[in-house]
Amino acid sequence: MQPSTGVPAIAGRTPIACLNCASAKTGCDKTVPCSRCAEKNLPCEARFARRQAKIGARSKSFSNIPAQQQRSSPPISHNSVPEIPKQESEPPMPSNNNVLDPQLQGVSQAETDFSMPALQMPGGSYGTPPNGTLHGHGMDTMCLDNDMEVYHDFGLWNSYPPDIDSMFPGSGMEAQMSLPSFIDMGTSSSASDAMASTSMDTSLSTHTRSTSIASHSDRHGSQSVEMAMPILLRDTMVPEFEVVVAAEAAWPLARCNRPIFSGSCPRTAIVHLENLEQHSKDSSTWKLLDHNIATAEVDHKYEISVVPLNASSRDRILAITQGFLHTALETHRGGLQRWRQASIPGGFNFLVLPPSRVLEYFLRSYVLSLAPYYTLVHGGTLDPNEVMLNNQASTLLLLLAIAYGAAALPTAEARCLTAGLTETCRISLFHIIEKDVELSADPVVLRCALLFTILGAWSGDAWHMNIAMGQRGMYLAMLKHAGMLEPAPPMNFSNLSTSTELIWREWQQREGKSRLVYNWVMVDQELSLFHDTAPILSITELETPMPGSEALWLAKDSSEWLTALQQQQQHQHQHASPSSGANGGGADWMNPNSNSLGVPPLTPSLCDLFQDMLHDNINRRYDKLSPLQLKLLLHPLQSLLCHLRQVLSCFSDFFGSRRGTRTVTKASTLLRLEEVQSLLQNWYELCLVHAKNDPTCPVTRANLVLYHLISLNALTSFPEIERLARKESFDGSSRELSIRHKRCIHQPEEATIHCGQIIRLICSMPREGRPHWWSAAIYRAALILWVDSLSRMDQNAQRLDKGQIFAIDSVMLDDPAVVSYLWSGEGIPVLTKVGAGMNGQTHFKLLPDEILGHSIELLGQGVALRVSDGIKRKLQELRKNWSLESTVVVAHM
After folding, report:
1. Contacts for 206-209 with beta carbons within 8 Å, 24 or more apart?
2. Do 665 and 647 form a contact (C-beta atoms < 8 A)?
3. I need a surface site. Which of 4, 134, 460, 490 has the fewest CB within 10 A?
């Protein structure tokens, strides 16, 4: 073994990590040979920071500026970034456009003279380049020369081959492939805990269209550095990758600002995978999650319990997940990259998952957040150990459930786990189906596809959102081709000696398939609503029976199931009418106590139920529809309305009031639109029965929000609203605004009331357990109110408001003030300020800037999901874009 010697002194140059350590992305003590090379008997080649003389000159000139002036100085061009000079009492720190607190402790002088400080993080750096590598010259230090540009435009990422670093090691091309930075978005409690423990790499970018390079932590020779919060970004959000923030413009929804498309969208999938890979290089990487869940435990009052994970199941999850992650990384990196990773010492490590206690918390969070809306867990118990006894698809299902539960924990580590597992499971799910096409009809695989679609479509990551929307059609086709939409024959047990256990098992299997189908129906309806597209499934295809009673589904054994069955039988006989049909009590039930079997009759299909609604037979044939059945009825109503809106959008004047100019097609379409609105009103009256009996039912609340959103689609054109928000074909004149407003909103008063009800219902929901689309609902209500307020600005300035003030987010639809406002237009609609007390509520008028500011505050009231943070940033950008424009519009009115 070679003796370690110091690095030869070279005037004006600072030693950095040797070539081997830089290639392996590990720490280096910067001796020759370093301890790692000496231990592995490798040739050690020293490296030095470049062009230190020029940097030193800049640092010297910058030292003449007082410290206080440095902190308050305006942003500096990224081509020449000065440094704070060295002082005896305070180590030096490189400066960039972001204003940072210079009180950094524990940084060695060699690392802070002229190079980017190493940020300590369990498992290495928190970001990786788009091609997945970080090695070679110039990557251990921030190169600040004008002729060495380190900022790389997002739109040019795809112009470089993914394996160019493998073909040209140590070239200047590597230095140009910059690392997506990690933006700290604020001072929330969970984020501050993460920052305090220095578990995140908070390298900050100086440009919204560029990325930064951060050196990896030196575990052997350097101490950790605590990076202060930036004061330029004041949002109370979880720290986020800049590449993810930049890709938000490519979302398939919430497009109120100028969009970008897939050809120029940053690559985020590999960032999430390598982020998870980096976290898996250290056994202590998930300790902060364990601390966070101890302070974030919620009272899970839902009736589904979670069985603890045993050691054997955890080992199986770990082994299978490691294979999944390797497959995903190989898919993104390609062959040359795989060869390179295998040839480098200290490459990918064994996968490290969070502790079992954390995984169980995520499963409970999954049950609390998703199970009330998509009931797929039978027996009232989720047992991950039982799930793991099956095949790889079952492991995928469990991992997706963990990822969904982790998404509700507002920390950077939880987001790392969610995004990494989502992409890992997506690729493995596709490979499983590709290897065995028969699995396309497997209920477990289709449940995995359902969870991925929900998780991806509402992930807040552009890649996952777009691919989930693209692949949902494929998964729905698999569901259809598997025959699961077809009518099911009645259960027939000719042998009276058949045990209740066998009947229960058979019913459970059929019920599970029915719930799988109709969960897909609900997802199809929700995605079509929020993306302003037509549902994929047709109502005439949905002939399989709808799910039965929740009491039967949640029964823990056959005896409990039989008891619930008998109770249901007695209730239906008491409320049966002579003309009752399916599910109305007209079927004959056998008495299990007299050597005969009680078999539940088939429930109606959604197609049957919708036909009864069209014929106005609901009240006559059904005692009371369940919240789940009411939610399913929204699918055909949404489909009808979507097609009518598409036809109306083809007319230039939309809802033109001049009868003489209407064509037959337009008149008939408007008449059909009124018919759909009448059906929606009938649906609302049916739902009010549940809302009055159980006001806190999460499904009923979510149903009412969806109802108001669908009703808004009958009154507004949301794609037109977003076009106006983006100022497409808008000259800024009051005349143009008036024309565009008519195309955006048909009945402003009614639309205002619906928006207020959406806000009221969502604010009444508990923070934990809200539907995953709640932030998108707030966004749509906010934009409709905002566009309407733009057109009313001149009226508000010129007229005297008459009538009483009423808060649209506090009153019910039957309130006298609402009725007066809808019929005569009298009344002053306002919104309640966030945090206003019940006794001393304060309100504000519906003005554009006030509405956007209020909506941004509302988004901060719920759990900080990645999608809600992204929508919040979009509204902030919209508010900024129109802050001056709205004043110009008023001036021309």
Report:
1. 206/75, 206/78, 206/81, 206/96, 206/97, 206/98, 206/151, 207/78, 207/97, 207/151, 208/242, 208/245, 208/246, 209/153, 209/154, 209/246
2. yes
3. 490
Q: How far is residue 190's CA from residue 584's CA, in Å, rounded to a whole number?
A: 51
Identity of residue 389: L
Alpha helix ranges (H) inside 8-82: 19-24, 35-40, 52-62, 67-72
Kindly report the pTM of this predicted structure: 0.74
SS3 of 290-305: the string is: HHHHHHCCCCCCCCCE
d(CA 27, CA 368): 42
Backbone angles phi, psi at 812, to 5 degrees: -90, 170
| 671-694 tens-digit pLDDT | 999 999 999 999 999 999 999 988
User: Which residues, other chains included, contact 407 with Cβ-Cβ below 8 Å and sequence gap of 6+?
Assistant: 414, 415, 418, 455, 459, 865, 866
Nearest C-alpha neighbor of 350 from the set 285, 251, 282? 282
Q: Is the dihedral of CA 622, 625, 628, 634 positive or negative?
A: positive
Rg (CA), the chain: 30
CB 343 within 8 A of CB 397: no
Buried b / exposed e over 478-513, threshold 16 CB at 10 Å, is bbbebebbeebeeeeeeeeeeebeebbeebbebbbb
CA distance 53 to 476: 63
CA dihedral 148, 345, 201, 205 (to 10 degrees): 20
Give the residue from 858, 848, 877 showing the smallest Cα distance to 779. Answer: 858
The DSSP line for 368-433 is HHHTTTS----TTEE-HHHHTTS-HHHHHHHHHHHHHHHHTS-SHHHHHHHHHHHHHHHHHHHHHH
Domain boundaries, the chain: 81-262, 483-715
